[in-house]
Design goal:
1148 residues, mainly alpha, two-stranded antiparallel ribbon, 5% strand
């Protein structure tokens, strides 16, 4: 074998020396399966020099001009994780001494960063740049220094961005800008992540570079599947030594935390063994190789002495020692953790943070962490603040410790793999870190040697065995109770319940005497015990008591719910439908509501059955504690759950009556919240009105202004009808081959030779057909009042697509196109986070599904919703090609009439009768064919995901199941649009009700619209008739859609303001404004010019354009005002300070 390697090396050397070496020669080496062969070939000086001189030139680079210019990128399809990671480690091994030096500089820099020593931190970065060249890590940390310490941080960061972007490509400049944005942006963690994720996904960058961007811009969402890791490693060959090294460390940490690829990990650790890096030592320590952890821990005795003082309750002593610990290990988040817990448990106000943390950003984080520990009113705000700092710091070791400390303690999660990240990135070690050692003997040896003198262990052993003498006089009473409870728990399984009860009694006693901060420490201890108790109850499969504990904790303080990992409990509860002990408990329903269970309505029905009652208002409330009854009535018995009880309530009106009765009960039980209940009573009444209005608007979608046809075309129509009345009734007619009528006396002439045929149509019938066709043309095609105009405005251009899409959007099963002209869809991030499996394949499944749904809806919109006549629109569902079949009936109806107006009305009624046949066919086709196609696609989606994902995913299956129900409801809603009802003038609607109605319609179409910041105000004195209502709805929905589609903003960032008022001259004025993204300012200005030009065009042009699909819809608004409302339209559009204004004035 050695001879083979030697032969390979000699051949490759000769190729280098003869200048015949090619990229493929080295690629064959890289993609071979023999790692030893790769190592020996790369160790050869000549081959190695060629490799770094010609192929891997960014190891030490003075600028970013060569970043992402490496030919390896073009061979990524051959890569796999093992190949890429081993090759990467082989490269890094050749620079072991340089990387060891970098790590020493890095630790010094981070120490200065956290100790408020800006100058020395800057010197360290300059030293790194001098010796190792530029790197993204270097630029990122230069920006961080400015962000945390400079008064002119924004300007200085901009200068850094310009300095390091000047010689790069457009992409490198983009990446630099986005890194600076990540550091300076004050958006919340989630909002930034969502926006960045969407921006990266929508970009045209290759898949691998997208992943690289995620690593730098949104590290906490960096994927961990093998394909993603190997892909980003391919790209790392375009970067500096420092950048690819730090990326490799993060990947190795992921593999060890996820317990994946142990053999590959061992090979990598062997190759990197000469690099001095605490992070590598910690990975090795988990395997306990060469007692690395034990050697490391001997330098951490000072912190462990602090931990001992903390364990036995000497919090003041712990606080006094911590500044010295921080001086030695500023990069350990455990210091901040123990500091704040010591403050909490000693009941000290955290006003001494500056004695330990001099840097302002650390003070902010520490104070926020304290608020989180005490679950103060600033809890959520503090969580957000900590996460923002975590984002700013990116993949920094300290930031990772902080992120996962928050993640594991306060996010319903206590996962070992997440805690492993804290251990791997912390520069200090404790006796408790023994839990991360895999080997049992190594773990025992570690505890014996390192922890033999630890109070942490001794106290625990004392309460386990009573064989160790221990002086308990200085240990806090509640700390002793905690250990006693743990001991009792092992024997009787009741220790945690007993202690929780004692703590509750103590808290009540103190609360009645004093509101001192001692309550914070007692509550903290109690929460810890409840957490222990909850784990024990789950282990004992005691789910009823587990539910009780969660509910009690929530009702005491809603934030406390976050301390329990309730997903497993919910799954077990949902299985227990035959367990009457579970189904009869009001706590079960409260718990399921808190967990947003899809089976809440079903368990609600079981609960009523167990209590032998039909309605919740029949519940004997004295059987339960008041706080549980209040929650049950307020939150569980909502309109949605009540509506699901179809065996109890036949109609929605009955559901509303029951909810109103519940609210009246609540006023009696909880009078302090009477105002809240009264407001809901008012909302239900308002909802009822809006529902009636929506129904009237929907049933008015199909309309033809028959009166206008008669008024404007009367003379022409009367003339045609008179021809009909005067025509004779001779039935036999003769025609030549050219279809020219031939009189009897001319039949023998030469030009009429040939075959003659006749049809049975009298001149009178022919004239009636002419009248019918004339009126039919007005009825269907007139741009001002014809049927097709309303189909365009109210259905095709209006709400059809949104209504049919809404079930899929509501359940997060589809996304939107990357652009109007693209068939590519943005990533379904919500589902990707919920599904285990190959992210790329799963995302393709959702993209394909989105495309199929949109294609189907597009077919309905563009083909079904068209008028079929004279061979046009052959797939149109409004079929007027077969009027001959009913012509005889029409002729019979009008033959006896002599009044042109009556004949006109009879013809119009005939056309409505024909339209009704089409409407019936449409309703049937929607409910059957379209619904079946949607359900079929949903079933196929479920099958495709089941084949691709690992394990069963109840969340996705539930969403697909719910979507099937929502689809049927949505199609029923759309079907109701095709029931014709003439609008009435009897009903009067205020402008305020109009605005609320339009908002409700838009939310029904697209549930995510509820995220828009919507402000509206209407003049209560403006009253609109039922006939006017649909037209005003048309106008406002067009303007709302413009705000959403043309702002280039996330819905959460969009502000829409709508006002309706009377002008001095008696007109009605509608003003709609919305903010927009500054990036599209030029587009907005151009569109304003286009809109104004179109509006100033002639009436003929405007009337021809109103039926054009797409666009901004202002011509349709013009048509609605001028022809439907018969008013003078005054339309103006403008923008100022990134606010777009639409002002619509309707002359009355």
């Amino acid at each position: 074998m050695v001879k083979t390697y030697y032969t390979d090396i000699v051949k490759l050397r000769k190729k280098v020396q003869s200048k015949q070496m090619r990229l493929f020669d080295l690629l064959r080496v890289k993609y071979s399966k023999d790692n030893k062969r790769k190592e020996q070939i790369l160790n050869d000086t000549i081959i190695s020099k060629y490799y770094f001189d010609t192929l891997d030139k960014n190891i030490f680079t003075e600028n970013f001009s060569n970043y992402f210019d490496n030919q390896y990128f073009y061979y990524r399809e051959k890569s796999d994780l093992e190949t890429e990671l081993i090759w990467n480690c082989l490269i890094l091994k050749k620079f072991s001494s340089e990387l060891s030096k970098y790590n020493a500089y890095r630790l010094k820099y981070e120490k200065y960063l956290f100790k408020d020593d800006f100058n020395n931190a800057k010197i360290q970065l300059e030293q790194i740049e001098t010796e190792f060249g530029v790197s993204l890590w270097l630029v990122e940390n230069k920006m961080l220094l400015e962000e945390f310490y400079s008064e002119n941080s924004k300007m200085n960061i901009e200068n850094i961005t310009k300095e390091y972007s000047k010689e790069g490509t457009n992409f490198q400049k983009y990446l630099m800008d986005k890194i600076s944005e990540r550091i300076t942006d004050d958006f919340s963690f989630d909002k930034y992540s969502k926006r960045t994720s969407m921006e990266i996904e929508n970009s045209k960058l290759p898949f691998e570079i997208k992943l690289f961007c995620v690593y730098w811009l949104d590290y906490h969402n960096f994927p961990i599947d093998d394909e993603a890791l190997s892909s980003v490693l391919v790209i790392s060959f375009n970067t500096s030594l420092i950048d690819r090294y730090n990326l490799t460390i993060r990947i190795l940490q992921q593999l060890i935390a996820e317990k994946k690829h142990e053999k590959l990990l061992n090979n990598c650790l062997r190759l990197l063994s000469d690099i001095k890096d605490l992070r590598i030592d910690k990975i090795n320590a988990i395997y306990m190789k060469d007692n690395e952890l034990l050697q490391l821990s001997k330098t951490d005795q000072l912190f462990n002495s602090v931990l001992d003082e903390y364990t036995i309750g000497n919090y003041q002593t712990a606080l006094e020692k911590l500044p010295e610990v921080f001086e030695q290990n500023a990069g350990a988040f455990k210091i901040l953790d123990i500091y704040n817990k010591s403050l909490l448990l000693s009941d000290l106000i955290p006003n001494k943070t500056k004695e330990i943390f001099k840097a302002n950003f650390l003070k902010e984080i520490s104070n926020a962490y304290f608020e989180v520990l005490t679950k103060s009113e600033l809890y959520f705000e503090s969580i957000k603040k900590i996460l923002v700092f975590s984002r700013k710091l990116g993949a920094n070791d300290w930031a990772i410790q902080m992120y996962y400390s928050i993640y594991t303690q306060f996010n319903n999660v206590n996962l070992k793999e997440k805690e492993t990240y804290i251990f791997l990135n912390s520069p200090i070690n404790t006796v408790n870190d023994a839990i991360f050692i895999i080997n049992d003997n190594a773990r025992k040896n570690y505890i014996l040697q390192f922890g033999s003198d630890s109070n942490t262990l001794r106290l625990w052993k004392f309460y386990n065995t009573n064989e160790i003498e221990f002086d308990l006089k200085d240990i806090p009473y509640y700390r002793i109770l905690t250990y006693e409870a743990k001991r009792e728990q092992k024997i009787k399984r009741t220790g945690f319940q007993s202690l929780t009860k004692r703590l509750d009694d103590e808290i009540k006693k103190i609360s009645s005497i004093d509101k001192s901060r001692e309550l914070s420490s007692l509550n903290y201890f109690k929460e810890k015990m409840r957490h222990e108790l909850y784990s024990m109850l789950l282990a004992d499969e005691n789910y009823t008591d587990s539910v009780d504990l969660v509910v009690e904790n929530y009702l005491e303080n809603s934030i406390n719910l976050r301390m329990f990992n309730t997903e497993f409990l919910l799954n077990e509860i949902e299985k227990g439908t035959k367990n009457k002990l579970i189904t009869s408990k009001i706590e079960t329903l409260i718990f399921m509501k808190l967990e947003d269970s899809s089976k809440l309505s079903y368990f609600f029905e079981l609960f009523l059955d167990c209590k032998n009652i039909n309605k919740p208002t029949e519940l004997i409330i004295e059987d339960f504690s008041v706080d549980k009854v209040i929650f049950f009535f307020e939150e569980v018995c909502n309109i949605g759950v009540l509506s699901d009880q179809v065996l109890i309530f036949d109609r929605h009106e009955e559901v509303e009556i029951e909810r109103l009765n519940i609210l009246r009960k609540l006023i009696g039980i909880n009078p302090s919240d009477e105002r809240i209940y009264t407001e809901e009573i008012s909302r239900i009444s308002q909802d009822k009105l809006l529902r009636e209005l929506i129904q009237k608007v929907n049933q008015s979608k199909l309309f033809v202004d028959v009166n206008r046809i008669w008024e404007e075309k009367k003379d022409s129509i009367i003339e045609s009808i008179h021809k009909f009345l005067e025509a004779d009734t001779q039935k036999m007619r003769y025609y030549n081959l050219n279809k020219k009528e031939v009189l009897l006396e001319d039949m023998g002439k030469s030009d009429n030779e040939g075959i003659f045929y006749f049809i049975f149509e009298t001149p009178k019938e022919k004239e009636l057909r002419n009248v019918l066709n004339e009126i039919l043309d007005f009825f269907l095609s007139n741009n001002e009042y014809g049927l097709d105009t309303y189909l365009s405005t109210r259905i095709r251009h209006g709400t059809l697509q949104g209504q049919l899409r809404s079930p899929f959007q509501k359940n997060n099963l589809i996304t939107t196109r990357k652009s109007d002209k693209s068939d590519e869809y943005i990533a379904n991030d919500i589902m990707l986070k919920r599904i285990n499996g190959n992210a790329k394949s799963i995302n393709k499944i959702f993209s394909d599904f989105s495309y199929k749904i949109d294609s189907l809806i597009e077919d309905v919109k563009k083909n079904w919703m068209q008028i079929k006549i004279n061979g046009k629109n052959p797939q149109g569902m409004f079929d007027f090609d077969d009027l001959d079949l009913s012509f005889e009936e029409l002729y019979s109806n009008v033959s006896s009439e002599s009044s042109p107006k009556i004949i006109f009305e009879l013809i119009i009624q005939h056309l409505w009768d024909e339209t009704e046949k089409s409407l019936e066919r449409i309703r049937e086709r929607l409910k059957k064919e379209l619904c079946d196609q949607f359900i079929e696609l949903l079933t196929k989606l479920q099958e495709d995901l089941a084949n691709e994902q690992t394990g069963n995913n109840t969340f996705v299956n539930r969403k697909i199941s719910e979507c099937k129900t929502d689809v049927q409801l949505s199609i029923d809603e759309v079907s109701s649009w095709f029931e014709r009802v003439d609008p009435s003038d009897d009903m009067k609607v205020t402008s305020f009700e109009l605005l609320e109605l339009c908002k409700r319609i838009r939310v029904n179409i697209s549930p995510e619209f509820s995220n828009v910041n919507f402000v509206s105000n209407g003049d209560e004195q403006i009253l609109l008739s039922g006939r006017e209502l649909p037209y005003y709805v048309d106008i406002l929905l067009i303007l709302i859609d413009n705000s959403i589609k043309h702002s280039s903003l996330e819905l959460e960032e969009l502000n829409v303001e709508m006002y309706i008022e009377n002008t001095e001259n008696g007109n009605i004025k509608i003003t709609v404004s919305n903010n927009f993204n500054n990036n599209i300012l030029n587009e907005i200005n151009e569109s304003i010019e286009v809109i104004k030009n179109k509006l100033s065009s002639s009436k003929k042009q405007s009337s021809e354009l109103v039926k054009v699909e797409g666009g901004s819809g202002y011509l349709k608004i013009y048509k609605v005002i001028k022809y439907d409302l018969e008013a003078k339209p005054i339309i103006d559009v403008s923008q100022k300070d990134n606010i777009f204004f639409s002002q619509i004035e309707i002359g009355r």
